[in-house]
From TrEMBL:
Gene3D superfamilies xrefs: 1.20.1260.10
Location of the region described as Disordered in the Swiss-Prot/TrEMBL record: 1-42
Organism listed in the record: Chryseobacterium indicum
InterPro entries found in the cross-reference section: DUF892_YciF-like (IPR010287), Ferritin-like (IPR012347), Ferritin-like_SF (IPR009078), YciF (IPR047114)
Biased composition, class Basic and acidic residues, residue ranges: 1-13
Residue stretches of biased makeup (Polar residues): 29-41
Source organism, top-level taxon: Bacteria
Compositional bias per record (Low complexity), positions renumbered to this chain: 17-28
Protein name: Ferritin-like domain-containing protein
């Protein structure tokens, strides 16, 4: 009895495993490209760098939304028409930045979500303090508001610059193009704010008593 069982056990697994091996080999030949693609995609999604990239996108998605609200208050508080207009224009651009980020999330198969960004909350709070501590209708207020706004732009420039480079490294070319487009607009805004300060604001602010 014991011998028969052993023979059966020995014979059948050998036949079965060779049959399974043949089936698996032909199946993997047919599907090798699809398998590799899904394995690569899963590996990519689980990589620490991809996770960091998504987390940083959620951070800047929160920041851009907070900036839309902050620009309302800054526009209202500004003294000169030049600065009011600059804030209004950039608020319009910032709404585009939000929708571009939503496209980036979609391109990498992730859901747009906000993750509280303490840095931008702090920078926006600083702007609110400037409004409280400067006189309404003064040029000093505009000079100070420009610096507050440029701190926001520099935070965004650092973020988009880094994220665009990471997107290139990870092969997300379309996402990189969108991030670079926003980066360019943040850099242009920073430049325009400097122009406004030097042309319309700083000299008059210096004359105030
Ligand atoms: Fe932005
Ligand atoms: Fe901006």
């Amino acid at each position: 009895m014991a011998t028969k069982t052993t023979e059966n056990k020995d014979n059948s697994p050998v036949k079965d495993s060779s049959a399974t091996a043949e089936t698996a080999a032909s199946a993997s030949k047919k599907n090798i490209q699809a398998d590799n693609a899904s394995v690569n995609e899963n590996e990519m999604k689980n990589s620490p760098l991809h996770k960091f990239f998504v987390s940083a996108l959620k951070d800047i998605y929160f920041a851009e939304n907070a900036i839309i609200d902050a620009l309302d208050k800054m526009q209202e508080a500004a003294t000169t028409e030049e600065l009011k207009e600059a804030f209004e224009d950039h608020q319009f651009q910032t709404k585009k930045h939000v929708s571009r980020l939503e496209k980036v999330f979609k391109l990498i198969d992730e859901t747009p979500e906000k993750k509280e960004c303490k840095a931008i909350k702090g920078i926006i709070e600083e702007g609110e303090e400037i409004i409280k501590s400067t006189e309404e209708g003064s040029m000093t207020r505009d000079a100070a508001l420009i610096i507050a706004a440029q701190k926001v732009e520099h935070y965004e420039i650092a973020t988009y610059g880094g994220l665009a480079q990471l997107a290139i490294t990870m092969g997300h070319d379309k996402a990189a193009d969108l991030l670079e487009k926003t980066l360019q607009e943040e850099e242009d805004t920073d430049y325009d704010l400097t122009e406004i300060a030097e042309t319309y604001i700083n000299f008059d602010a210096e004359q105030e008593e």
